[in-house]
Design brief:
The protein has 677 residues and is an alpha+beta fold. It is built from 18 helices and 19 strands. The chain folds into four domains: 329 residues, no CATH class; 74 residues, Alpha-Beta Plaits (2-Layer Sandwich), CATH 3.30.70.3400; 104 residues, Gyrase A, domain 2, CATH 3.30.1360; 80 residues, 2-Layer Sandwich (Alpha-Beta Plaits), CATH 3.30.70.600. β9 and β10 form a beta hairpin. α8 packs antiparallel against α9, α10 crosses α15 and α17 runs antiparallel to α18. The radius of gyration is 29 Å and the shape is globular. The protein starts with a helix and ends with a helix.
């Protein structure tokens, strides 16, 4: 007994030391974390089209290709149109505009030439470029598959017919990136470039060809270092709010689960330190959507602990010893935790693969957080809990007892709930229809989606972002009559960039007059341009495709794990329902739909799938236990009743975190209602 107690105390001491060490290094590396435009600012570069005024389609295509190109610096880079012939690029976490310009190179400089330098075709005549793996006599070969436009097909056919046995140089920004040899005349508009060492090399070459040539030739017009969109006060307030939220979660976990709750708090403390270190180590650019991904992973870590502790209480309620209950509780909770996290991880991987911008940032932090949260929940919590038990906390009163309750007839209320759900969704559709009929969008799209007006103002004095938020923004929003104004300060100057909804000529004049009257700004130091949204149609399409692929992948995984298509179909149906209910709220209350909305909806998807998996896991277990002795309705009611406390407690803990970290506190509660319906 004394030996076990000594081991338990020693183990606790080691964990506490680890928490302190990783906490210290985490705090020390916080300054090394790359922050996005909303948190730290970066470099803003404006390009202008050269020559004849390009068409809107050409500018849109060029903008999307630039978006893909600058993602090499950061997935959170923003690219948007300014006026009819300019493109603005904001790259976070960078302070040297000249360095970026030098590395970015001059856009629009990809060409295929013979070895004498004569141009065969230009990059805009390449329709697609993709990395691929082909079988060459039983050996894997990595290639780049190219297809050409009709003009490119003819030009390439003419050239390769004459150049069999010769090399074609692919020139990007003045540098030869590949020189494949022509083996035969290529007349069908498709070819492959072989000789790549691995898939990564093939993907790099394909990516360079894909984005290397732009539809429009551009030249640099100006470049600036800009400040954060959010003031330092907002950032520090968010950090304090996060600490308060963590404190509330800790208090709740200990109050609800006693010794197991204490073990979870210690494990979560270690998680916080580790996630900060990993964010810095992997060079992740952190923005508000990225923070949402971290919060979701923390919520899933809390949920994993709640599932485990509920199982332990149940085992003690069945008369098992505490030691046996701990072992069995972790074993029985394992399948629900693994399935829930893997399903969400699948979504994160697909979102990173197919998404762009804030979607990719969300996916990065979510995937990192999920892997870490599984590790802390399944290993660290278990280790700490066993240490506490060995240290002397052996009595069942320290762990709680949960006995089976009489099943609640949830399915007996299904018709009422179906009606409520359908009515809620119908109200949302009607609200969106009304919004459209009034000349507005179906939802209240923010600047990231709909674009607006960018007003550059040079003030007579240097103003901090907090001063701008408190003094300038109210003046601007009095003119626009709408919240959501975005501001950025150009470093080293008194210039401030103010982004609002699209302003009419009269409103621009009114804003100019208001700035002159309130701040003494000289009229000639105020300029305005129309700007597009930072989230392009292509990025929207990328996000939609990513969500569809992720949903299908999750459906296949759930089908495989639960051996029944009904489980998979029900999970996807519940996911769609949850998303539509939240969209209804956005339509009714006209909440702003921007990059945070994307993060919000992705968070809902994560919660929906995870909550569904937990209930399905219990149904699967009870089906195996009960066999044919109960019908499906009884088993479903029993399973929901058994997981009901877990659903309530998970919603309370994650809502506490969300309440203090963001405006999305209603999401876990909404998700709980959706699960019960």
């Amino acid at each position: 007994m004394k030996s076990n107690r000594g081991k338990g105390l020693l183990g606790l001491l080691l964990v506490i030391i680890a928490v302190g060490v990783f906490g210290f290094f985490g705090y020390d590396t916080m300054d090394d974390i790359k922050l996005g435009l909303d948190l730290a600012g970066g470099v803003s570069i404006t390009y202008e089209a050269v020559g004849e005024t390009p068409t809107a389609e050409q500018m849109s295509d060029t903008r999307y290709k630039l978006q893909k190109r600058v993602e090499g610096y950061s997935t959170e880079a923003e690219v948007y149109l300014e006026g009819g012939d300019r493109i603005n690029i904001d790259i976070p976490g960078v302070s040297d505009a000249n360095e970026v310009l030098q590395e970015l190179g001059k856009p629009g400089s990809l060409a295929f030439t013979d070895m004498q330098g004569n141009t065969i075709l230009t990059g805009d005549q390449v329709a697609s470029a993709k990395a691929a793996i082909v079988d060459n006599n039983g050996m894997k070969e990595y290639v780049v598959a190219l297809s050409f436009t009709p003009e490119g097909t003819k030009a390439f056919a003419d050239a390769t017919t004459k150049m069999v046995g010769q090399q074609i140089a692919i020139i990007y920004d003045g540098q030869m990136i590949s020189a494949p040899r022509v083996k035969e005349a290529i007349t069908g508009g498709e070819c492959t470039i072989d000789g790549q060492e691995d898939y990564q090399e093939a993907e790099t070459l394909a990516s360079t060809i894909r984005i290397g040539s732009l539809s429009v030739e551009l030249q640099e017009l100006r470049s600036n270092v800009v400040g954060a969109k959010l003031g330092q006060q907002a950032i520090s307030t968010s950090l304090k709010a996060g600490a308060i939220g963590f404190g509330i979660v800790a208090i709740f976990m200990i109050a609800a689960y006693l010794i197991p709750g204490l073990a979870a708090v210690i494990a979560l403390s270690l998680y916080v330190g580790l996630i900060i270190i990993l964010l810095a180590a992997f060079g992740v650019t952190l923005t508000l959507p990225g923070i949402a991904g971290i919060i979701l992973s923390i919520g899933m870590a809390v949920d994993a602990n709640v599932i485990i502790f509920t199982r332990i209480k149940e085992e003690i309620g069945l008369g098992k010893t505490v030691k046996s209950a701990i072992k069995t509780g972790f074993a029985k909770a394992l399948s629900a935790i693994v399935d829930g996290n893997i399903t969400t991880l699948i979504a994160a991987v697909v979102l990173y693969w197919r998404g762009s911008g804030s979607v990719k940032g969300f996916a990065t932090t979510l995937a990192l957080g999920i892997v870490l949260s599984m590790f802390t929940a399944l290993f660290i919590t278990k280790f700490v809990l066993n240490c506490l038990y060995n240290a002397g906390f052996e009595d069942a009163k320290f762990y709680g007892i949960k006995k089976d309750k009489k099943p609640i007839n949830f399915l007996g209320k299904k018709n009422i709930c179906f009606i409520i759900s359908l009515a809620a969704i119908a109200v949302g559709l009607v609200a969106m229809g009304v919004n459209v009929s009034k000349g507005n969008g179906a939802l209240n799209y923010s600047l990231e989606f709909r674009g607006g007006t960018s007003t550059n103002v040079t003030f007579n004095e240097d103003m901090s972002l907090d001063d701008i938020s408190l003094k300038v923004v109210p003046v601007v929003e009095k003119v626009t009559g709408e919240a959501g104004t975005q501001t950025q300060k150009v470093a080293g100057t008194n210039e401030v960039i103010i982004k609002t909804r699209t302003l009419s000529v009269e409103e621009r004049e009114a804003l100019d007059n208001a700035l002159v009257e309130n701040f003494g700004v000289e009229p000639e130091k105020i300029t305005a341009e129309s700007i597009s949204g930072a989230i392009s149609n292509e990025m929207k399409n990328d996000a939609v495709v990513a969500v569809i692929i992720a949903t299908i992948a999750m459906l296949i995984y759930i089908w495989f794990r639960f051996k029944n298509i009904r489980f998979a179909a029900s999970a996807v149906l519940a996911l769609v329902h949850d998303v539509l209910v939240v969209v209804t709220c956005y339509a009714l209350f006209k909440w702003s739909v921007g990059s945070t909305f994307i993060a919000c909806m992705l968070t809902i998807v994560g919660y929906s799938i995870n909550a569904t998996i937990v209930i399905f896991d219990r149904i699967r277990e009870n089906l195996n236990l009960e066999g044919g002795r109960k019908d499906l309705a009884e088993i479903v009611n029993q399973s929901i009743t058994q997981t009901f406390t877990r659903s309530i407690n998970t919603s309370l803990t994650t809502s506490s975190w969300y309440l203090y970290c963001s405006c999305w506190a209603f999401l876990p509660f909404a998700n709980l209602l959706c699960r019960l319906w």
